[in-house]
Amino acid sequence: QKGGYDFFMQKEIFEQPEALKNTVMPRLHNGRADFSADNISDDIFKDINRVVVTACGTAMHAGLVGRHLIESMLRIPVTVELSSEFRYMNPILDDHTLVIVVTQSGETADSLAALRLANERGAKTISIVNVKGSSIARESDYVLYTHAGPEIAVASTKAFSVQCAGMYLIALKLAEINNMMTAEEMAAYCDAFQAAIDTVAPVLEMDEQIKGIAEKIKDTFSAFYLGRSLDYAIACEGSLKLKEISYVNSEAYSAGELKHGTISLVTEGVPIIAIATQENVLPKLMANVEEVKARGAHVIMVTDKDMSSYEGIYDDLIQVPNVDDRFGTFGVTVALQLLAYHVTVFRGYDVDQPRNLAKSVTVE
Ligand code: M6R
Fold first, then answer.
1. Of 8, 105, 243, 355, best ligand 1 pocket probe by most atoms within 8 Å of the beta carbon
2. Model-level pTM?
């Protein structure tokens, strides 16, 4: 069942090139997003003045990726709400609001309740779902299925990557329907999207190197993930992955927030995983990295950028292939999944079934 892998999580990490290909390729045609086989009407993307993404856990982090993309590229306001909060906050919704529910299982109780509330209040609803025919898929106006195949390990890996891909597809469709990008821009976006997906396989080949880095930090009590802009969303996901399976006390911070409290926790040898895929904030991020390095942190850079001018201010480098900054998500995410996986194996815990956690959270 594990197909020669030691754990389901490991198998699912390695299935990502296929999962991404199956989710994305049938929907990219002639430089546009084609949802005709999904029976998703263009109408849902028209007359929208805001987007609300609601989800839990890892799926919420895919929402953060989507927010960055849709706001920065399309200038449509996006909020991302934890479903468990959204349903109790008396949200302001109307038929100009597109609510996107993101979920692997399609059965998460809070996300289902959030969807029902959005439907009741007349918002347009679309869900990004992996499990066919699940409750959330059935109750949304439309569903964009991710084609990751079954995800068994509690820690979500391939489902996250395809959820992000779903966000990138919806962003392209929004751009097309609302005339926000030219045909040339859309074609370039599709090319960059495919190129980014193609970098996942080479990142998987870095497994041994990442294992070596994991061994260096395996005994740590705590760890911090830093990023700015899109990389903050990825930091959140990387940190969740590490904490949920390895039990390392791990937190993600926007690098700019360090000086507002967190840096007091940085002591000799504490692993800091810094994510750098966004050129426009790279000097700012590296200034923060220099500050933690000066306090003795063990800095692991995870980046697709050329780091030659920053040598000496990091200890380890996970260099993934360079991609268009909008699509920085895919390669670094896979590297962070491998890091969390190997740390957990070194610590001797059950990777697939971490304590106190269930695959599908059907209670509130
Ligand atoms: O099935 P869902 O995507 O709705 O589940 C949401 C979260 O419970 C889930 O993403 C959880 O955070 C992951 N197991 C973390 O790896």
1. 105
2. 0.97
